[in-house]
Amino acid sequence: MNINKTLLATPLLTMLSLTCLSASNTSHKVTHMLGVDFRPSYVFPTHDFFRGANTAGKKINQSLSGHLKYGFKFSPNTKMGSLYPYAVQGIGVAYNTFFNSKEVGNPVAVYVFQSSKIANITQKLSLDYEWNFGASFGWKKFDAIDNPQNVIVGSKINAYINLDFLLNWHISSSTNLLAGIGVTHYSNGNTKYPNFGVNTIGGSIGITHFLGGSENKSDGHVRSLSLQPFRRHISYDLIVYGAIRKKGLFPEGEHPVLAPGSFGIIGLNFNPLYNVNQYFRTGLSLDMQYDESANIVHHIANENMPSDPNELQFYRPNFREQFSAGLSVRAEIVMPIFSINVGIGKNFLCKGADTNDFYQTFVLKTNITKHIFLHTGYQLYRFKDPNNLMLGFGVRFNAR
What string of DSSP letters covers 39-104? Predict the structure, then answer.
């Protein structure tokens, strides 16, 4: 299994198993949902390829996707249903087109999603959010002979991340019409080159239908369960992760080159989090990472730059140039099964330009048990430069 398939498999396999369990545990524990939506989007012109420097000679500035989704929400007679009466989680499949199938392809995305209410606007209208996290398959990747103009996408499989803010109109007790705006990011996490990424912003319109009963039937039952009052506390997440990556080099006075081979990454996070309520945690994280590719541009062994990048050789940098430790501020939204954790930090122990900077993290935690979770994350440098994936697992101490 390559790194891109692992990116999808960690949360998706968990969701599949939970979905099968929910279906077999009889309908009184969950309410099932079917949905469909369409998302026309604007493609950010982050490279000349999108501005018309392609074989077709046309701008690539729009995309369209159609989505089919299955989801479920916990019933009000369960603890999860009482604590999170509006949360829906499930699996989606999407067909995407960028109106240039020859050079870009028409990728199909498979993802897990979660949605919930943010606030009521009227009795029948609410402001909701939905996130999607998975992988997209079927991209036409860069090829020096067959697809030389596409220097954007370097792999047939890319991560798929989406966030929507939606107006949810409750047409009936079981059917909703949703419309809003969202942003989408496609990338392979530097596991292949090139990896400029594809970013879109656009609209969304769709409909959902809850099977076997009212979507809002839980509202009148939330107080029927005797739940212990929430006690604020500090929990401690210890995370170990790894990944592989490609490395682009920018030698002084030379053209950019791609270093041959792949490089390993291993990291550890210790993340104390103050649990404000059952929906939100915040705190600091001690982040340590060893990146086998860090600062290798300063240790090229060749006397002259070879014409073939595969002939590049390196002296191994010392440990301090490839190890970094930093502190980040973290915020985490807690929902059934999943938690979304974002952070902004700065390395305080580092040496060299590749690690001496601010970094940002986006993490999906998928709960396996109360104390163990899967960790699927992505790290950026300087708010824009893709750095590496973060695939691993975590242990939570003092979970309540």
Answer: EEEEEP--STTTTT-STT-S---EEEEEEEEEEEEE-TTSHHHHH-TT-EEEEEEEEEE-S-TTTT
